[in-house]
User: Fold this.
Amino acid sequence: MRACQSRVASAGAPDARSPTCARDRSRLIPAVRGTFDTAATTLNVAGALHAAPGRARRNVGRVEWAGGSGQKPARWRMDEIARACEIALKQIARDVPLDDVLAGLAHAAEAVAGEGCAASVLVLDDAGLLRNGASASLPSHYLAAIDGIQPHPDVGTCAAAAATGEIVLTPNFLDDGKWTELRHLPLAIGFVGAWSMPIKARDGRVLGTFGTYFRDIREPGDIERAALQRLARVAAEALEHARRPVPDEA
Assistant:
């Protein structure tokens, strides 16, 4: 899949009460409307959430914004996720190409995770192999090296998440046996850890993974976890929408 530039960061927050939003909502399949409504509601009330940016002590001993270095305050990050989710759901309703939708979600994940992080959306193909869906911040040679990896509970982070259907944390590639054969790949481009969340369909099937690579040894903070959960849910809506049967023309 091609990497596409996202306008999520620069786009202004749409008004969830506007006629445009109402029109876009009406085009969504009923199963998706609940997610659209949740994103719209959160967008309108996000200013009241996390009014004071939290601070947390990281496991390496420095005090920084919860979750990692170079991060924006909590309120800004919640606003960013709400914006990204609504934009993506409107794109789904308009049949925007899947590549563009996933690229916007990945961009939002990077904005929330902080400076230097790289988000990666991997999608299971018909053969059950993981393919790149949106990973604009990762170099092409790295993506080529991991392309077509098979899900396995004892391999990597995203492959393990796809195999188990569970969140997988890898704070330090050097300390995790699942990365024994692969750790040289991310280490060579400056990443020391990662975490990944499975992207699941409404019936529980794993459709892919949504991961983030870190340049420091840490685990994701609470806001990162909540943000990626929402982004992964919208990514699932995009994947299911893209794979829906196309009605035969009369």
